[in-house]
Amino acid sequence: MRRRVFTTALLAVAALAACGGGPETRAITAEGVERENPPGAPVANLQPGLAAFGHALFTAAAKPQANTVLSPLSIAYAYGMARAGADEATGAELDRVFGFPPEGPHSAFNTLSRVVTTTDGPPPVPDRGTPRDAQESEAAPPVVSLAGGLFVQDGLSVRQEFLRVLAAKYGAGARQVDFAGDAADAINAWAEQRTAGRIKEVFDRLDPETRLVIVNTLYLKADWAVPFTDPPERDAVFTRGDGTAVRTDLMRQEGEFRYASGPGGQAVELPYAGGELAMWILLPEPGGAPGDRLAPAAVAEVGRELKKTRVKVAMPRWDFSTGLDLEQPLAALGLRGAGYSGIADGLLLGRAVHKANIAVDEWGTEAAAVTGLAFLQSAPPPAEAELRADRPFAFAIVHRPTLVPLFVGQVADPAAAG
């Protein structure tokens, strides 16, 4: 496929659907609650919503001529944790935007994390600088890590039911930090460890009035089942969407792959070692928009049409990142509520960020994503009345259900004793 332009799209989540160092922190958890390990809620309940949300967010956030990588799973997982403490109106918006199932997302996310992850702890840091030999290198088993973190201002009273859900469904306890101090450093260090060093910063800084932060990390390191060992096509032409051209090398290989072609374009499935993960390369027709190939209907069609075919594959290496303030694109999708009083009194979502990066070469893929949600605490509403007991008053201690008085009396002189 000499000089054929391959427009690439991220596909870890779509393909899946188809088939602490740093400053010290003190942990708090829901007392006596361990992570549940039930037979499992059906992950299929999450897939349609995640596919639709991923495409909608991509459409709202991606710039036509810019490289883009997003993780719908990371964003939805973080907001799924927050859903456990959302007020009624905000919860309804979360359900619509993310397509959470009617029974809620928590059990399904618990099942999904057990299905896709390969490690409960931080992923190992790979040796990224060592050259590999095609004749001597064997594909390593994939590494997938999905983790949730909760960071709480020391002294904030977090509701036990919220802590219970996070412990039972997400395996997450809370770490107490000081947001007027080094909390951002602690959060960034945790995320760096959980992404094997690929993402070093979630927040550049945090408002000192922040009271709670939810963080999700997603990390993937996977070798191709068959590496690209054919000699690359040097100095090939890659035609950008605006018609301009850039020179790049194209990795090449020929073999039996699942392949589909039709009016919308072409697709090939590149499996990773182990067989459970794959990347789909979705090439639209000339002049077509790559994002259209991520639409749920298009993805479903590709899944139906892929068939074993002898294919010559040529595509570039890539290594890039995307940073996104989530507030505007999610508001455009209908998420405007910010009330999370089920986490703590008066808690409001003040900031939401997402960062992702991906590197693809002849040997495989390494990718990471982080989503951070920072919450502030609103001031209490103004008093509707005032009672100033600066003159003699009566008191009564009553049993509320029956209104039986246990004690009654008056305060005539608070300075008198005896």
UniProtKB/TrEMBL annotation:
Pfam families: Serpin (PF00079). GO terms for cellular component: extracellular space. Residues 55-414 form the Serpin domain. This is Serpin B. Residues 116-139 are annotated as: Disordered. Residues 1-17 form the signal peptide. One of its GO terms (molecular function) is serine-type endopeptidase inhibitor activity. InterPro entries: Serpin_dom, Serpin_fam, Serpin_sf, Serpin_sf_1, Serpin_sf_2. Keywords: Signal. It comes from the Bacteria. Transmembrane segments: none annotated. Belongs to the serpin family. PANTHER family: GH10112P-RELATED, SERINE PROTEASE INHIBITOR, SERPIN.
